[in-house]
Amino acid sequence: MAVRKIVGLGCVALLSMSALAGAVAQTPATLRIGMRDDPDMLDPAFSRTYVGTVVMTAICDKLFDFDAKLAIVPQLASSYEWADSKNLLIHVRPNVTFQDGEPLDAAAVVFNLQRDLTTQGSFRRSEIGAMDHAEIADPMTVRVVMKQPFSPFVAALTDRAGMMVAPKAAEAAGKDFGLHPVCAGPFSFVDRVAQDHITLQRFAGYWAADRIHYDRVTYQVIPDSSIRRANLEAATLDIAEVAPLDVDALSHNARLAIVSAPSLGYGALSVNVGNGPRADTPLGRDPRVRLAFDLAMDRKALNEVVFAGLYVPNAQATSPIAPLYDPAIAVPGPDIPRAKALLKAAGVTTPLRVDLLVYNTPQGVQAGEVIQSMAAEAGFDVHVVAAEFGTALAAVVRGDYQITLGGWSGLLDTDSNSWSFLHSGGALNNAHYANPKVDDLLDQARVASDIAKRRELYGAVSRQVNEDLPLIYLWTPRNIEGVSRQVAGFALLADGLLRLQDVRPAQ
User: Fold this and answer.
1) Residue 249 CB partners (closer than 8 Å, separation 6+)
2) 439-495, pLDDT tens digit by residue?
């Protein structure tokens, strides 16, 4: 199939209409999806981005998923039960095969869980790290043995930790598996051109084949939200993420529908407090300076200006829609006099230069500029540094930043939204933050099973983090997609992932 490029057309870029006409004639059942960023590795063990998870959701089914009420439901598993507080039995769905024909059975599930736990560099290790090992109880039943009680474990399996890859293909490919992933989902991988597109095709042997209604899916990488919007309006995309400021205009387009859902994620500023030489700044060394920066933020105004009032100001890792949200965690308002006093007490000379790394997208740059303006009132000289998504992510991992604006799309349990980022051993703790009190609270929350007790523990985590401020939580986003009315059956859940089961051409 010919690659369809983004081409310039005046001030807006549209998919080439002539190329599109030929492509549509050849593949009338192709679903065209516009994405904001180019995904990272398409390997559940090593992926760390939302857009990567979006694509893998079509390739790799999970052991479990969750529904619109955030209740866990089986997917590749048929059911589960806790034999006791440290032994979990997972019953594997029968008659499921991977895209290379290998059967999904207990041995395959054990392989995947052990791979996530033990492979060097796995980002899933932090999410399932309380697991001691997994073993075969019978050909279609897995016994997961915990080192200690671990209440978030099944919830963790509703995301990448629960995605099942084909063992033989994974072993054969090794570290290159993500270049051509093989899983048990509805679509199999075809090709990828970096910064351009990813193509998938329908897997005929999918266990729920009657729920799949497109032959192919193409994911087009379009970082500029105005270009995604233009392609939606020109009907050269069927589904695309929509920037909040575009919602009102698109909602008046009779050919499009806006589908949205509250998110489990968050947007935050991450401060380098211990990751290499660039942490050695007043901002990185002194929590008073970080608090001054926090107190310069007007979360309500930021939401109104950049996100059309559709996001929710927040100061914790938990979304207001989640059971573990603590409403007692106050969202600070701007306090410029106190911010200035803190900078004076810290002995810094103002204006204090701070380099703010943002993604080079219209929304990322705009948010950075609003933060720049707010921080200036308190005595900060913020320099906004815009970088392409992959470049920015690599810089953060190696510690080449002072403060960065980013976020997390959100998983079902608060443990997955906090432990990896805040625990001293967390795989996603790029700030190299370490506080024994926070470590202990996060570990206690993993062991506790009572919702009220866990909410109390995460509230204590939030209070301490909001003193130390390695992360300055700013908002809870909203998942928003523009969808052609030629597409039916599309819905969004709180993680924002694009589940393609039951999505079909409109009649």
Assistant:
1) 229
2) 999 999 999 999 999 999 999 999 999 999 999 999 999 999 999 999 999 999 999
Which among 34, 53, 406 has a CA at the least distance from the CA of 229?
34
* Nearest-5° Cα angle at 304, 299 to 310: 95
**Beta-carbon contacts of residue 52 (< 8 Å; ≥ 6 apart):** 39, 40, 41, 42
- Angle (deg, nearest 10), helices 336-345 and 362-378: 70
Distance CA 248, CA 256 (A): 12
How many angstroms separate the Cα of 246 from the Cα of each of 224, 230, 405, 452, 482? 12, 10, 21, 39, 10
Which amino acid is present at 461?
V
Domain spanning 266-476, CATH class: alpha beta
- The domain ranges of the chain are 6-59+185-263+479-505, 64-169, 266-476
Q: Which helix (H) or strand (E) holds 220?
A: strand 216-221
pTM above the 0.85 mark? Answer: yes
CA dihedral 223, 228, 231, 235 (to 10 degrees): 130
Alpha-carbon gap, residue 58 to 243, rounded angstroms:
23
Q: Both ends of the chain: CA-CA distance in Å?
A: 26
Report the alpha-carbon distance of residue 66 to residue 206 in Å, rounded: 20
Q: Are 4 and 16 in contact (CB under 8 A)?
A: yes
Write the burial class of residue 365 (CB in 10 Å: 0-12 exposed, 13-18 middle, 19+ buried): middle
- Between CA 65 and CA 68 the distance in angstroms is 10
* Spatial CB neighbours of 186, under 8 Å, sequence gap ≥ 6: 58, 61, 202, 203, 206, 208, 209, 211, 212, 500, 501
Angle separating helix axes 336-345 and 287-295, nearest 10 degrees: 160
CA distance 461 to 324: 12
Which among 242, 247, 189, 248 is positioned nearest to 219, based on CA atoms?
189
Select the CATH number that applies to the domain covering 64-169 from these four: 2.60.120.430, 3.30.450.40, 3.40.50.1000, 3.90.76.10: 3.90.76.10
Phi, psi of 160 (to 5 degrees): -60, -30
Which amino acid type is present at position 221? V
Residue 153: C-alpha distances to residues 74, 120, 145, 304 (Å): 14, 21, 11, 37
* CATH of the domain spanning 6-59+185-263+479-505: 3.40.190.10
- Chain segment 293-311, per-residue pLDDT in tens: 999 999 999 999 999 999 9
